Amino acid sequence: MVTKLVRLLAFSYIRSADNLALEEAIQLGLEDGTSPPTWRVWEAAAPAIVLGTGQEHAKEVDMDAARAAGVPVLRRHSGGGAVLIGPGVINYSGFFIIKDLPGAETITGAMQAGLQPVLVALKTLGVQARFAGLSDLVVESREGERDARKLAGNAQARKRVSVLVHGTLLADPDWALMERLLKFPSRAPDYRAGRGHRAFLTSLKDLGAPSDLASFAAALRKQLKEPVQDAAGPSAAEAARAKQLFAEKYSQPEWNLRR
Fold it and tell me: In what helix (H) or strand (E) does residue 19 lie, and over which residues does it extend?
């Protein structure tokens, strides 16, 4: 069980780029001591593609299709692969002080320790998930590994004293839009076995589990050790920092399409 969590922040900005800016703002706040360790849950109001920090947009996204659909292509400050966020995709983020998260000295250790509350929350919703690949959460059918289907992808951002472990949980996504906009990933885990998006991925709705943000947030909160402070929004300092990061970075093609 992850300990020393102070805040559960269930908050979404309207613009996806603002939400990405807030992710970095909270982690920078952990670095300078102005933000507490935090779990955040949020859902984008409209579709957007989010690239990992090191990805090349032309390799991962059909840019012509994205422009035609009016879907922005953005970039986060963590690693991992490209995802389509929007209604039906639940985003969760754990912001930790490295020394307070057992095993967080390594990338794998931080991923496994940080995501334990997510795994247990899913179990309470009737979903038996496990780790697969570098950072995926998957469910299995009777075929086992040969038919493991990805439910959530995760990524990390590590700084001097903090680590952010965050992911996208497929609740009830727009499958058709995903198929149109996201190319087969340039780096795919072996267990994907060449499967296309719809054959490889699954969702809470597919699994017959509650697929709304409120149900997941409530299940997650029950796994967090007290004391937990529920917050309706970021602090003034975090909001100001996020606004600056949006203006200087997350709204700029020089960042979003830099590769």
Answer: helix 16-32
Please tell me the predicted confidence (pLDDT) of residue 224. Answer: 85
Q: Tokens in use for 11? A: 């908050």
The CATH number assigned to the domain holding 201 equals 3.30.930.10
For residue 2, tell me if it sits in a domain.
Answer: no
d(CA 153, CA 226): 27
Q: DSSP states of 44-91 as a string?
A: -SS-EEEE-TT--HHHHB-HHHHHHHT--EEE-SS-S--EEESTTEEE
Place of tokens 């727009």: 174
Q: Please state the separation of Cα 57 from the chain's center in Å.
A: 18
| Total Cβ atoms within 10 A of residue 61 | 21
* pLDDT, tens only, 226-244: 678 888 899 999 999 999 9
Domain that holds residue 89: 7-256
Segment 58-95, tens digit of pLDDT? 999 999 999 999 999 999 999 989 999 999 999 999 99
pTM of whole model > 0.85?
yes
Residues 6+ apart with CB under 8 A from 153: 80, 81, 83, 135, 136, 137, 167, 168
Instruction: Confirm whether 1 is domain-assigned.
Output: no
